[in-house]
Amino acid sequence: MAAELADEWVEYVAAAGLAAGTVQSYQQAIDRLCVSIDAALGTAAPSATLAVDEPDLGRAVAAWERTLPADYATGSMRPAILAGAIRVLIRRRVEHPDRLVADRVAALARAGVGVPIGESVELDEFSREEKQAMVRGAWAAVIALEKRLAAGWDLASQGRHPDQGSWMSIPDLLWGLAHEMITPREINDHLPPARKWPAELVRCIERPDGTVSVTTAKQALDRWLAAQLWPTSFDLHAFRVLLVDATGRAPEEVSVLAEDDVEFMPGGVRLTLVKLRAKRRYYRSFKDASLEMAEVIEREEFKDWPRREPGVVVRRLMDVTERARLRAADSDGRLFIRACVEPDLTLRFSEWSPDAPGARFVEWLRRHQITVSGGTDIRRLRKSTKVEKVIVSRGHLADAADDHYEETFRGHYAQGTTLRVISAEVINTAQEHWLGQALEGPTVLTPQAAESAEGTTRLQALGLSEQEANDLIQGELDMGVTNCKNPYESPFSPAGELCAVAPLRCLECRNAWVLPSQLPQLLLFGDHLDKLRQRLSPKHFTALWGQSNANLRAVLDDRSEGEKILARKHIAEGAITLNLPLAAHVEFDA
Asked: In the chain, how many domains are there?
């Protein structure tokens, strides 16, 4: 059974071009299933095969799936991934005409996944300060790397073959490695014990505390010498940070860039990017010093560094890895190539692995004294860039989701802390705006205030201009229910046009002024609203007339019963009427 699944695994990896992490998941699934079946079947396990019904592997696989979640944290997605991997391999074998699969096993593979998918916790983006610290640290690391390599090759140019010079001379050792005349193993064979080394050689391998490990001194010197001539796994983290920040692309996309994927243009660079999971190749052009997000974070701190110029970052990456790429057996021409001295003392130039032991991103952050809250996943940096794009584009998802679907953005990027805070601020601003509109209703003058405000000077003190005060006194601003200080500046109509909703919405308008003499019109308007209340549903009435009704009741509650009785007498005598537009007597539900 192990051989059958392994065959399908090898063919599937070759056909689908799976990423390294997915390949390892399939291998782990096969290993764990084999261990489980060995324990379950005992002596029958060696003869177990997918092609026969006995022993029953369908039952054994189902039992293994049931026990998987117990080995992981609650909500982990790993059990479902492993169980799904086995079923994929079995289904591939079922579809092959020349490979037999027992009916019970085939039925299990065709069924739904036996392990429920767990819940993933979305990564939160780095804070603004954390991102700035990473960018500063990355540029400092790039500059230090360039200086180190320049000094290393300068020393190598001063050396000669160690047989002619000295096996304990740094320039001679660098010359030999640079010209492929010696190997790390030869260096170890010719070097005496570390206690006999000259001081300049000992200083190369001193630890931060000033000590030297005698047992690993030669291997440490080999790594130090290689690092003076070519970039190491540790060095390339800085370029990935800068490219993710400058381009906004995923870390796995920028770290697999090849020479053919880069096209320099006047003022920028054009990159060919590949999304492995989506099997999609696409192209993006980036202009140096004018990226649309360049103003989001203050540029003063980065005035001496081309902080967001992808073309500059790519060019400097190509410069520092040029010599390593010439010696690498990489047909794709990858840009992220590093030098490494293997445990067997072989100097190897190969594609960069960001998860190499001892050179992971968390170690890079620690060495550069960069402290971040939460996990040290570089994908959080991409989320920070996505947030900036949303801010710059004023919330246009189509602009922010320019390298994936908008649904993906909503599911994976729109849950960040910054976007939640911005959304809350937008909601609060909108609520305050409409609350202010509701509170900024008409200005009501009581009889006492009206008597003291008969002069234009007092009315101007209340917020009216001299002309508006004169027009109010002369009755030229009367709109039927209230007075209006300027019907051409209505909040319900375009500026400069005559208000189109007077007098029906005057009690909701901040331009309205209610005088004591307008009490009869207010009572008639209240009768009109009472008729509407009887004809309309409560929900419809509240939506259309709720604010006007509330403001009217507040005005009427401030008037005495005697004033209301007197106003009703004037209405009964026919001296006062309320003129409303014809539309006020017809209500539509839609």
From this structure: 4
| Nearest Cα to Cα of residue 297 among 397, 391, 394 | 391
Output the DSSP codes for 36-66.
HHHHHHGGGGGG--TTSSSS-HHHHHHHHHH
What's the domain range around 195?
128-227
Report the DSSP beta bridge partners of residue 340: 348
Q: Are 513 and 472 in contact (CB under 8 A)?
A: yes
Q: How far apart (Å, rounded) are the C-alpha atoms in residues 85 and 254? A: 28
Q: Is the dihedral of CA 129, 134, 135, 141 positive or negative?
A: positive
CATH of the domain at 300: 1.10.443
DSSP state string for 395-414: T-HHHH-SSS-HHHHHHHTT
Q: What is the pLDDT of residues 61-91, one digit of tens each?
A: 888 888 888 888 877 888 888 988 888 999 8
- How many Cα atoms occupy the beta-carbon half-sphere of 353 within 13 Å? 10
Structure tokens at 67: 């026990």
Contact yes or no for 78/97 (Cβ under 8 A): no
Q: Which of 322, 331, 330, 327 is CA-nearest to residue 347?
A: 327
399-429: pLDDT as tens digits? 555 666 566 666 666 666 656 666 666 677 6
Q: How far apart are CA 467 and CA 469, in angstroms?
A: 5
- Mapping DSSP onto H, E and C, the string for 59-92 reads HHHHHHHHHHHHHCCCCCCHHHHHHHHHHHHHHH
- 554 and 450, same structural domain? yes
Q: Are 523 and 556 in contact (CB under 8 A)?
A: yes
